[in-house]
Amino acid sequence: MSMISEIVNQVIQSGYLTLETEExxxxxFAVRYDIEDxxxxxxxxxxAKSGQVKQQSREGIRC
Length: 63
Description:
The chain has four helices and two strands; from the N terminus they run αβααβα. Helices cover 71% and strands 6% of the residues. It has one domain (3-59).
């Protein structure tokens, strides 16, 4: 399992995507990614769209 996939799984399990984690994912995708990572990102997008995951960046809350 790739680092991106592991992070996505943790976010989905916790139900919350922090600004820091979102930035970490952006940085990892900028360096390199594979099909497994793209699939993980799609899962994360679907989870956010369905409300399973809340995004700190969309809530306007700073920790």
